[in-house]
UniProtKB/TrEMBL annotation:
<comment type="similarity">
    <text>Belongs to the 4-hydroxybenzoyl-CoA thioesterase family.</text>
</comment>
<keyword id="KW-0378">Hydrolase</keyword>
<dbReference type="GO" id="GO:0016787">
    <property type="term" value="F:hydrolase activity"/>
</dbReference>
<protein>
    <submittedName>
        <fullName>Thioesterase family protein</fullName>
        <ecNumber>3.1.2.-</ecNumber>
    </submittedName>
</protein>
<dbReference type="InterPro" id="IPR050563">
    <property type="entry name" value="4-hydroxybenzoyl-CoA_TE"/>
</dbReference>
<dbReference type="InterPro" id="IPR006684">
    <property type="entry name" value="YbgC/YbaW"/>
</dbReference>
<dbReference type="Pfam" id="PF13279">
    <property type="entry name" value="4HBT_2"/>
</dbReference>
<dbReference type="InterPro" id="IPR029069">
    <property type="entry name" value="HotDog_dom_sf"/>
</dbReference>
Length: 145
């Protein structure tokens, strides 16, 4: 299983009046992590879009564990949790610099045609991308490599 890491400097604008990162900003960080994973394995989401396809979020789940604050750095760890014919689920951990888990998350995505929003199989339009995800996805027994 391949795990990408993306460091994020927490900006003042990302915090609330208590100085804690506002919960919606974690969703933006998930996108940063997903984009980094895709690039790490040799592809780009921008290229997919230029070919007339999108990959919208169909489900997202975040569990907040320990607050992050302005001035700290967060590390977003991202991997392919599950990958099938029509859906990809990404797994995430957002960590403090010391490795403490700040949040855990998953996001589920499908690929659709940009003009019609009709679902398409990643294996049909990008067989190499599909094969790479099959290679790097999490072991079904939950074992991390």
């Amino acid at each position: 299983m391949h795990i990408s890491e993306k460091e994020v400097e927490i900006r003042y604008a990302e915090t609330d009046q208590m100085g804690v990162v506002y919960h919606a900003n974690y969703i933006i960080w998930l996108e940063l992590g997903r984009t980094k994973l895709i690039e790490d394995v040799g592809f780009t989401y921008a290229e997919m879009e230029s070919q007339g396809f999108l990959s919208p979020v169909t489900d997202i789940s975040i569990q907040y564990k320990a607050s992050l604050r302005y001035g700290q750095k967060a590390i977003v760890r991202t991997w392919v949790e599950e990958h099938g014919k029509m859906r990809t689920t990404y797994g995430y951990e957002i960590l403090h610099e010391d490795g403490t888990i700040a949040a855990k998350a998953t996001s589920e995505h499908v690929v659709v045609k940009k003009d019609s929003f009709r679902p398409v199989s990643l294996s049909r339009i990008y067989p190499e991308w599909h094969a790479k995800y099959e290679e790097i996805k999490k072991d079904p027994n939950g074992v991390r490599s």
